[in-house]
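Lecture 7 notes: from sequence to structure.
We start with the chain below.
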Amino acid sequence: MMYLVTTTHQLAMALKIARKTLGLTQAQAGALVGLLPMTISALENRPESCSIESLFKLLSALNLELSLSPKTSSEPESTILY
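Predicted structure tokens for the same chain:
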């Protein structure tokens, strides 16, 4: 299944749905990649408070990968100035 994630809330929901679809508890998912159940809970409830490393570990446990793509929009792309 593909998830479109544009907010931390959507990320949290996608992670939880993916874990439950695999029939894993938080403890089981964490054990696969060396994360504590409380870290899995944090990723599923407030991912903004977690490390990128923990996110990638959970993605691995859930057999998911991160893919970035340009937003689809009717507005022309803007140039970002640094």
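Points to note: Residues 59 and 65 are 6 Å apart (CA to CA). The mean pLDDT is 90.
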